[in-house]
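Please predict the structure of the following assembly.
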Amino acid sequence: MRFQIYRYNPDTDSKPRMQFYDVAMEPTDRMLLDALVRIKMEDDTFAFRRSCREGVCGSDAMNINGKNGLACITKLADLQEPVVIRPLPGLPVIRDLIVDMSQFFKQYHSIKPYVVNDTPPPEKERLQSPEDREELNGLYECILCACCSTSCPSFWWNPDKFVGPAGLLQAYRFIADTRDQTINERLDNLEDPYRLFRCHSIMNCVDVCPKGLNPTKAIGKIKDLLVKRTV
Amino acid sequence: MVRREVSGAHYGLRDWLAQRVTAVVMVVYSVLFVVMLLKLPRFDFPSWKAMWSAPTMRYATLLFLLCLFVHAWIGMRNIVMDYVKPTWLRLTLYSLMILALFAYGAWAVQILWGR
């Protein structure tokens, strides 16, 4: 199979280049990650992140034929050749397909991604009714791979001020959690022309999410709560 | 001034809502306007002039234009927020946009109620 891969080593290269690779595949190679590992065996200067190889850790997010996705759960059979692979758009490149995710995680941390509850903890766990727990489905599954945020033009233009789809999905995950006591502080934190309202619901995030989640819907629910609180 | 990122202006909901409400008003007016045009007895200047002489038409059009200006202000500001980074340039553009929209408002009144 033929691949065209973004290569950049800031120590030796003055600018990034695209490199072609022709790889002889084995019948057992099913996913794009298998091909990347094979390329790495031929050319050990090629750098990328991967860990769980089954779409759970979110390490091998990259831009595959123009669309963000996880290499480990992208089927080779579905890809058109030459397969063009680039790092996630909009983030600083450290080397080849490895990007600096600091800005992404800074936004994630800014929404306080943990339950805040000052009441004394009960003997066992804090309980939720099955109906309340139901609301967290489609939210807690996020693996923070950054496919969504780096496909969002609003995040490209204002990564320092816009929380981004991943951060906002997580924000709603804790807003929706009945065990959390700080819903008003959370809404205060988001009510801002940049932090929340840079989202114009273009749904690139929904299009690319490898876990099939819907950040746009979560963002809509945050806006609904803000309206309910104000009107 | 210290170089730190600042955000958290605690507004935006009202603008977001206003953009949606004004959009609905504009859709309703646009449909009604087309209906009014189709209901004209003849496509000539006297019937066109008669259509605009009705006060309801003038007030409805003014309402539509005000909604358009509010909608345009929010939309244009969104574009500036995305693409224009220096604070001074943003403030200048915002001011120019607001002044232009007020001027357009006055001009609209002059056109609608002029002879």
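The CA atoms of residues 5 and 85 of chain A lie 5 Å apart. The helical segments of chain A are 32-42, 102-110, 130-134, 153-157, 164-175, 183-190, 204-208, 215-230.
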